[in-house]
Amino acid sequence: xxxxxxxxxxxxxxxxxxxxxxxxxHLAGVYVPADIYVRYLRLKKRxxxxxxxxxxxxxxxxxxxxxxxxxxxxxxxxxxxxxxxSMEEFGISFDIYSRTTSEIHHRFASDFFRKLYDDGxxxxxxxxxxxxxxxxxxxxDRYIMGQCPHCxxxxxxxxxxxxxxxxxxxxxxxxxxxxxxxxKPVIRKTKNWYLPLNEYQTWLKQWILDEHKEWRPNVYGxxxxxxxxxxxxxxxxxxxxxxxxxxxxxxxxxxLYVWFDAPxxxxxxxxxxxxxxxxxxxxxxxxxxxxxxRIIHFIGKDNIVFHCLIFPTMLKAHxxxxxxxxxxxxxxxxxxxxxxxxxxxxxxxLHEYLxxxxxxxxxxxxxxxxxxxxxxDNNFTWKDFQERNNSELVAIYGNFVNRALQLTWKYWNGAxxxxxxxxxxxxxxxxxxxxxxxxxxxxxxxxKFREALKEAMNLARIGNKYITECEPWKVWKTNPQRVExxxxxxxxxxxxxxxxxxxxxxxxxxxxxxxxxMTEYDWSExxxxxxxxAGHQLKEPHLxxxxxxxxxxxxxLKKLADTKAANESAQTDSTPVKPNVPFETWEQxxxxxxxxxxxxxxxxxxxxxxxxxxDGSGTDRTILxxxxxxxxxxxxxxxxxxxxxxxxxxxxxxIESQGMILSAENADGSLSVTTVLKPSDPGSQVG
Length: 687
Description:
The structure is a single chain. The chain has 687 residues and is of the alpha+beta class. It is 42% helix and 17% strand. The chain is built from 22 helices and 27 strands. Strands 18, 19, 20, 21, 24 and 27 form a 6-stranded antiparallel beta sheet that branches. It catalyses: tRNA(Met) + L-methionine + ATP = L-methionyl-tRNA(Met) + AMP + diphosphate. InterPro entries: aa-tRNA-synth_I_CS (IPR001412), Anticodon_Met (IPR041872), Met-tRNA-synth_bsu_C (IPR004495), Met-tRNA_ligase_1 (IPR023458), Met-tRNA_synth (IPR014758), Methionyl/Leucyl_tRNA_Synth (IPR015413), MetRS_core (IPR033911), MetRS_Zn (IPR029038).
């Protein structure tokens, strides 16, 4: 569909979990591109609304609350304020930034679910889910960890592997365990309400694969890979005690699934805004229900399935809403060649950046846009950050602006000189930047923000080249009138820069307009050579950007190095090595390979497993081991393990144990049984 068919645009940015701050990965993936687009639409005088807010019902919030010994609401209140304040200071220009714990959202999401329920659009069914018998609760996906079946990451969550990005279900995990108690969960039946995605598959294929081929390849491709398979019903409720209660009889102890609840926050936040400012925004329904309203979701690639398949299906099932027209999703941004990880604190946090590099919002906005992961994962490094600031913002953009303004003050006391007869170089330069508006708009309309930024910076390159080749400081000595024309054209370029960079670098653009005393400006005038009239008085100039010294970057690199060292220390901390012993003492130990023929729990013991071991002697050996918390008997049966064969027999729970199976104690206190890499005969000695 063509943009001209829409009267207004609803822009949403993915709701961040209120369990921590915002980092540069979030900014590059979602918030900076969304803000650029919204600022551009406002400059074009299009009717637009920009919706954001905190997702406060995610399981990560309850995990942090348990860890800190506070309530989930305490966590939400703390991080909602931190995120909101940081976004505002960074210049992310939301019309509203609200939250999913608001009363209006609870009521709205509850009513949305109830309508689907009353209309028979949800199905009720029992399913088998993991249950933690020690914690006495069903486990949400994020409360389950295990090995990813795709990339073998041992720390994959039950809903997604953060290493390879694959969406998962808990049942796919290998060796799952509860993050609450560490215990292996058991499977129990529970009743929930499901959205039958399979019933909407034909419609989804038509709507996405046929009608939205213009979507970014990563979005279209991921949707196609899902739609080429058979979609299955997806649970819209969960067995949890934190969230919006399911508004149905018999649903006690259940809440709305966070991925049902959160995207509805876009709508409830719009209602909250429109109810508060009806004269400015009108009724909320027109932003979400009118066919001439365009809806754009800015997200990261880990949210594609939810925003392109699940949420549209919810809207379709409801029956009163317009569909999203585009979902510009970015790939991931890495940090210093390593994946950004909140759990490892491997990130550049926005609130810390704002404090440690004050007044540098536009530098980060520039770097994240210039290096945006639009088509593939990209990498942020502090050296590149410094280089782009010093070599591009300072040496190209800032340098041109400073030269043009300083020369104007030097020769005409800050008054814009008149433009006289044009030479070939003048005409060529004017021709070069005449079509900047068209080029910028072509890129921005296609969500190609990195290319658009290059076009804006190209104006500064044109200006630098022009003023360098014309050398007004030399020409002044022989032809002051010629210098008037050179500086007039240079100042027109400066004024154009203040408009062209407005969507990308709002702080420095405002600063620049202050220096050239340009109180009014219009996007439609971009490319004009008459933005500043002859005689117009400029204000005293100052440097638009400043160099960033090595010590600033070194401090940030040291901070990351300290984080990495702390992570490595936490992973490798081990018990100090015991004092040396004579080799003869070692020789007294008889360590052998044993084949586990059978394994069972010891009655009335939560700790002990009983092993029947083939030790190669022809007579089975019985060994008890205190590893029942970490292994199920069937996991070990058939394995070859190492055991000490010459310990004196010892009775435990009335059973004589004839040796000790060797295990390694991990940093978290769990035990890992030692096995052999290659097949070895029972009874083989270790030495």
